[in-house]
Amino acid sequence: MDDIYMLTDNSILARIGSKLKSIRLRQNITQQSLSEATDVSLSTIKNIEKGEIRSFDSLIRIMRTLGQLDVLLPLVESEPLTPGEYYEMVHKAESHQRKRATGEIFHINKEESSW
What we know:
Structural class: mainly alpha
Number of strands: 0
Radius of gyration: 28 Å
Helix content: 40-55%
Number of helices: 6
CATH superfamily of the domain at 4-76: lambda repressor-like DNA-binding domains
Shape: elongated
């Protein structure tokens, strides 16, 4: 594969669209049935397959239906915390613990009250 950083944005979008079309055809799914399954308009699916990807939401719906969400896994996985980050997180949580009531009731002299 070419160095992805050397490709233009439009070239990347065209390759993504072409790949999704190829996957759809291998799974023997029509554009119409994909449209119905994803609740994405037929024209949007046609545009995405031509590399005209305007909606990330629609792209994710299509990828989910075609079983291709795993390529996004590195973007949604949380990175493990370093020991220092873990310590800071625990220390911060301990310092913001809710304060409990003392149980004492203070009586206000009604005659002195300005209310």
